[in-house]
Design a protein that fits this description.
With 96 residues, this protein is an alpha+beta fold. It contains three helices and four strands; from the N terminus they run αβαββαβ. 23% of the residues lie in helices and 20% in strands. The protein has a four-stranded mixed β-sheet. It starts with 8 loop residues before the first helix and ends with a strand. The mean pLDDT is 92.
Amino acid sequence: MSNKKFCCERLEGAYSVQNGFGLNFRIVKFSEPLYSKLKLINPNMLDKGFVMTSGYIHTINDERTMSLFINNCPFCGQKLSDFYKSDDYVQEIIND
C-alpha cells in the first residue's frame, strides 16, 4: 500500500482498516458479466464502485452488509472516479 496515494488522510484510514472494523471505505470492481449488464442500464457506468460500509464479515456484496455507494469523498469532496483510476486500489470484485 506504500505506493498508493489518497485524496485525504481520513479516507486512507477508512480504506486501510479491516473489513469488520467500523466505518470503512472500499473500492470494488464489477466482474465483466455484471459490468456488461450495468452498462445496458447506464452507458456511462464505470467498472469500479466506491463504497462506505459500517463493517462486514465475508463480502461487501452480502445482503446483510449495510453499504452506500458514493461518488465523492465524504471528508474532502474529491471526485473518487477521477482520483482512484488504477485497479491497484481495488479490494474486492463483485460478481453479481
